[in-house]
Design goal:
about 270 residues, about 10% strand, alpha/beta, about 30% helix, single chain, 8 helices, five-stranded mixed sheet, two-stranded antiparallel sheet
């Protein structure tokens, strides 16, 4: 298990978190091969004694592999006033079930409308996200699969708020995209070239966090998750141990990573 410190601004103060990366494919090879598991964990926050240790579950025949896309993308636009039943509206429009607190649903509503034109959400149709109070999120299966929490694909912490929460949700959904979508898996294959040309997009994927770093077999997958999340959320800075570092795409930086995101998201 690999962890790193993470911070993001809130109204009250700057909070610090831990994040542990997901289960990944072999990294330092010319080609990225099929995953041995499609169930993994990202922890944000200190894992209290007695809580399950974040990590990857064993491979399971109940977890289906990558699937095709979920339909055409809609327009990217500012979200309309949310309806009374945000959860139901998200399910109706994108086919994604978010059993999250109301304040998180409000941010997810804004986030999903702002990225609707990419087709990313359409690739994730059928995903089920449930909420818990642990300071981490964990992917248990692909849509249509079954894991420790039954049909739940992701358990998501109820501790995160604001634009940061929206970016972390996209980061987590990118992990589902990597394992469960043909387009996400194909996009992952473009990361090694960008990593070779520019190193990792963030301090975390560059293994520069002072106390925690992803394993060498995980850096490409964390790099892709940060690439997608931060490209789609230009107002959010580094999600991991950047300690307030600005968005790495500002000022035209990291054009190779930007190209990976644009090609993967059709923008």
């Amino acid at each position: 298990m690999n962890k790193i410190f993470l911070s993001f601004p809130s109204k009250a103060s700057t909070l610090f978190f831990l994040i542990s990366s997901i289960c990944l494919f072999p990294a330092f090879t010319t080609h990225i091969h099929a995953a041995t598991s499609n169930t993994c964990t990202t922890a944000v926050g200190t894992v209290a004694p007695g809580q399950p240790t974040p990590g990857c579950n064993a491979p399971s025949s109940t977890n289906p592999g990558p699937s095709g896309g979920g339909g055409p993308a809609g327009p990217c636009q500012q979200a309309p006033v949310p309806p009374g039943d945000i959860r139901g509206a998200i399910l109706s429009r994108w086919g994604i079930t978010l059993n999250l607190p109301q304040n998180q649903l409000q941010w997810a509503w804004k986030e999903f409308y702002s990225i609707d034109c990419t087709g990313f959400l359409q690739d994730l149709r059928g995903t089920l996200v449930n909420s818990w109070s642990n300071g981490y999120a964990q992917q248990f299966s692909c849509p249509g699969g079954s894991g420790e929490y039954g049909p739940t694909d992701v358990m998501f912490s109820n501790q995160w708020v604001g634009e940061f929460m929206g970016a972390i949700l996209v980061h987590e959904l990118t992990h589902v995209w990597q394992f469960c979508s043909q387009r996400g898996e194909a996009n992952l294959l473009q990361i090694p070239a960008a990593y070779s040309g520019e190193r990792g997009l963030t301090k975390y994927s560059r293994r520069e966090c002072p106390n925690f770093a992803p394993g060498f077999d995980r850096i490409y997958h964390e790099d892709q998750a940060d690439t997608i999340a931060l490209y789609l959320n230009p107002n959010v800075g580094e999600l991991t141990c950047g300690n307030g570092a600005p968005n790495p795409f500002l000022g035209g930086r990291h054009p190779l990573h930007r190209g990976v995101a644009q090609r993967g998201l059709g923008r």
